Amino acid sequence: MPLQLGLLPAWELSLYLFVSFGFHFYSFYEVFQASREYEEELDREFELETDSLFGGFRKDPMDFEWNFWMEWGKGSILWLLFGHLTVSQLSSLYMEKYKPWFLMVYGMAACWFLLGTNGLAVIFLHVTFSYGVAQFKNPFLMWLGSLLLLSTLRVSALEEIKRGWYASESEYYLLLFTLTVRCLYYTSFGLEYCWYRSAEMTHHPFLWMLAYVFYYPVFHNGPIITFDGFYKQMNKQETCSLKFNLWVFIRGSVRILLWWWLAESMIHFMYIHAICSSPSHLEAVTYWTLGGLALAQVLFFYVKYLVLFGVPALVLRMDGLKSPDLPRCVSTMYSFSGMWRSFDVGLHTFLVRYIYIPMGGSRCNILKMLFSTAITFAFVSYWHGGYSYLWSWAILNWLGVAAENGVKRLVSLPAVLDLILVAKKKIWQVMTKEEGISCNADTVPCCTSHRNP
């Protein structure tokens, strides 16, 4: 008999919510106090930025990713996204049949504007190579080709050549990040092309690959959309009125601005990255501050990606496409599996569709499931750069997911279920003995909240 699980009582949920908020705010207060105490020392070591955005509070400049994308966003990318929206809306009104091709040409032009002729040529080279490999309709060869392209991004000699194309490191890193994300798009198209039946996608497959790869809202940093989803949605778009799209744009922009303000306030009031980069200060702070630093790090990462994924998600929606769900708050997650499933939904969909399920997935025996999970995490580590700390991170995540799946399989065994039900009955009898309440093991409530995987 399956376990009967239900939600906790409202009063108990409210109590836990109150306690959780209390822990959050008190630990953040400790980080704020430490930031004020060590502000001058951190300024000398890391050169805190001064602006007037938050009443003169200095800004922690140590999160490279946030600073990088904010600089490019304000400088060029936001304006190019406005241009994309203009082309998209005009083509929807007057020439909807040709909309994918207008957006493809615009994406190529935007790529040339930011990455130059050499950057555009490299992406074209990768596209052509991937398309050529896909013609063999062999998924194994497609993966070999994709991994080969990914490996070229780590070749020192090629890195130096690419650096020579640009006047700044920032421009080189924009090309590097773009090529890294594009690699998933080549792979998605190639594998879908291998799987498609001969009657499907017979019209201009190379042009569709270009339209997919050069779709600008997700061009530099994602989120990840599979070719299957992109192709189907582009061919079955729902036309929305200009008035509706304007309302979507205003509401979405206000939400993104609030997320941006929250992220900026965190790095103005709490120098979380600077303190974590200074071993001497980490040793000096209290345990409450250490806990607050860890919590603030992961929550800042969450809010950061609400902004970085929220902007392209808004453009996708105005284009009539469905974006992957935005990240779920990490403070509400309680499992490794849930973190992977709910944080970067687009990447999770890619990994499950193209690696986890083809390698066996959870439908097979435990050994195949462990192998599929290991291969998935190995690819994620290699895709992110293949550094030693990433392999350690992958192993820890793999162990966490393996342990969770092992426990799930264990508690699904009939003998274990019977033991749990007997234990529940005894606990309930002890709790209700003084009140004289009789209980039945089949109807005993279980005070455990539950979500389906």
What does this structure look like?
The chain is mainly α. The chain has a domain of 143 residues. Helix content is 71%, strand content 0%. The chain has 18 helices and no strands. The chain is globular. The two termini are 19 Å apart.
Distance between the termini: 19 Å
What would you report as the Rg, rounded to the nearest angstrom? 25 Å
Mean pLDDT: 88
Beta fraction of the residues?
under 5%
- Work out the helicity level: over 70%
Shape category: globular
Reported for the largest beta sheet, the result is: none
Structural class per helix/strand content? mainly alpha
Element order: H for helix, E for strand: HHHHHHHHHHHHHHHHHH
In DSSP terms (H or I, runs of 4 or more residues), the helix count works out at 18
GO molecular function: palmitoyltransferase activity
Subcellular location: Endoplasmic reticulum membrane
Main location: endoplasmic reticulum
Family: Belongs to the membrane-bound acyltransferase family. HHAT subfamily.
